[in-house]
Write a structure and sequence with these properties.
Strand order of the largest sheet: 1-2
Shape: globular
Structural class: mainly alpha
Helix content: over 70%
Order of helices and strands: HHHHHHHHEEHHHHHHHHEEHHHHHHH
Largest sheet: 2 strands, antiparallel
Length: 497
């Protein structure tokens, strides 16, 4: 029976994350880039100014909402989204791409991220535009809402939108227990046992206690933790990576040369079939780009939609920055750590060490930090993986609320917390594979919605540019629902946004 399930899962997973799935993600990124006239390029300075540049200047970005207001700040929404995307994939995934696809895979990872910025942007714009307040007073948005209320409003598409919204929610719910929970805590337990000899069951009990306090406290408590945890873990990892890279500063030019050379090399690094090396570089680069930032999967839009922002484009720009920070910054630094540490023959792209995954990155850090290097990576994986658990707890809660109502969401949260212990103590190879499949299956209904609604995204973007950059006096496009549109438009005109 298990063998049959595994075979079916592998077949589905091959379709979702094979050539078809990756091509669909890439095409969606190109389409959304064209529809929005290359917003990530043409308005680079603007979205940087309105995101990372505004954190230190605009207090409304980081200001917490009142106790009775269930919305979270823009910065909290970014940190919670990054909590779910900056995970073990930024360490293990990048190392795997270099081992299997060569240094050139990093170039194709960048390409996927550059176009993925506009997919993530579009998801967030639609998320804000179609969001509604739930029974608990929180803003709820995501693929399920713009599938039902956006795609479903097209002539003859009502039931298509409803069915796709339900499918997306089911896939998200199932994925939250796997890729968003058990697979992450299993990595934590394994690394804590190997690095610090802490038994898995002790790690499991500790994580259950911590998670109960945070997750059962609701989104605002999750967001208050992630806004502290994410900057801390990101800064620590970036500083550590920069120390390693600049300790091998003379190798940096050769590392970049190997990336660009490997990206277009038709020869396999191991002397195989001509063209196979290029195929591997593109395949693994695109996969890592897609897995790392989750643009196109419709996951992070669920927390971005809970922000107290009013302008859909403002939250869309945070989506662009999310992909930029996750892939262009963190993943690139991991790649440079590996490539500059002498563990890869930069002239041929072949591996000199037998270590793979996190052990490879740990060895790379060890070239500078000695025995502390692998321990540093173990701690980084703990922080990265646990933050992913917190982020995905909200995604699962949103999906549960859509299917069964907000009032029953405590049931999901309790089960989610309990599964953390089992994730730490069980062998989960099959569960990991299944969750990977459900995670990928979220992409299909989500991208159908994004692509079907791309003209609307283009109109909202143009409306914002005309008002904010060209100073035209026109009515803002804020919401698909008249009551929200009227209230938000009034506040924007009064200078609240």
């Amino acid at each position: 029976m298990i063998e049959t399930i595994t075979n079916v899962n592998n077949a589905v997973n091959g379709v979702v994350w094979g050539t078809f799935g990756i091509a669909l993600l890439f095409i969606a990124g190109i389409v959304m880039t064209i529809v929005n006239k290359g917003f990530q390029f043409t308005h680079f300075g603007h979205w940087m100014k309105k995101t990372i540049g505004a954190i230190f200047k605009d207090k409304t970005i980081t200001a917490h909402t009142e106790k009775e207001n269930k919305a979270i700040s823009q910065f909290q929404s970014l940190c919670t989204a990054l909590a779910a995307t900056i995970g073990t994939g930024n360490i293990v995934g990048v190392a795997t791409a270099i081992v299997l696809g060569g240094p050139g895979s990093i170039f194709w990872m960048w390409i996927m991220a550059i176009f993925g910025m506009m997919t993530n942007y579009s998801e967030n714009v639609l998320g804000i535009y179609f969001r509604r307040k739930g029974e608990n007073g929180e803003w709820h948005g995501g693929a399920m809402y713009y599938l039902r209320d956006g795609l479903g409003k097209y002539k003859g598409c009502k039931w298509i939108g409803i069915i796709l919204a339900i499918l997306f929610s089911c896939f998200c719910l199932l994925a939250s227990f796997g890729i968003g929970n058990m697979s992450q805590v299993n990595s934590i337990a394994g690394n804590m046992e190997s690095a610090f000899s802490i038994p898995s069951w002790i790690t499991g009990i500790g994580l259950v206690i911590l998670s109960s306090i945070v997750i059962l406290g609701g989104l605002k408590r999750v967001a208050s933790v992630t806004e502290k945890l994410v900057p801390l873990m990101a800064v620590l990892y970036i500083i550590g990576a920069l120390i390693v890279v600049f300790s091998h500063v003379t190798v940096i030019p050769a590392a970049f040369a190997s990336i660009f050379k490997g990206a277009f090399s038709v020869k396999s690094a191991t002397g195989g079939v001509v063209g196979y090396g290029l195929q591997l570089a593109i395949t693994w680069g695109f996969k890592r780009g897609a897995f790392s930032n989750e643009a196109g999967l419709g996951s992070s839009v669920m927390v971005h939609s809970s922000s107290n922002v009013k302008e859909p484009v403002r939250q869309g720009m945070w989506g662009i920055f999310e992909v930029f920070a996750d892939t262009i910054i963190v993943c690139t630094l991991t790649a440079l750590v590996v490539l500059t540490s002498g563990l890869v023959d930069l002239s041929t792209g072949t591996m000199i060490t037998e270590n793979v995954k996190s052990a490879l990155v740990g060895e790379a850090f060890g070239t500078v930090f000695g025995k502390i290097g692998p321990m540093f990576i173990a701690i980084a994986i703990l922080l990265f993986a646990y933050s992913t658990v917190l982020g995905w707890s909200h995604y699962g809660t949103t999906a549960w609320g859509y299917l069964f109502g907000d009032k029953t969401s405590v049931i999901y949260k309790i089960v989610f917390v309990i599964m953390i212990f089992f994730g730490c103590t069980m062998s989960l190879d099959l569960a990991w594979d299944l969750s990977d499949t459900f995670n990928g299956l979220m992409m299909i209904p989500n991208l159908i919605g994004v692509l079907a609604l791309c003209p609307l995204v283009g109109k909202i973007t143009k409306n914002y540019i005309d008002r904010k950059l060209h100073k035209e006096d026109i009515e803002p496009m804020i919401s698909a629902f008249p009551d929200i549109q009227e209230e938000a438009a009034k506040e924007i005109k009064e200078g609240a946004e």
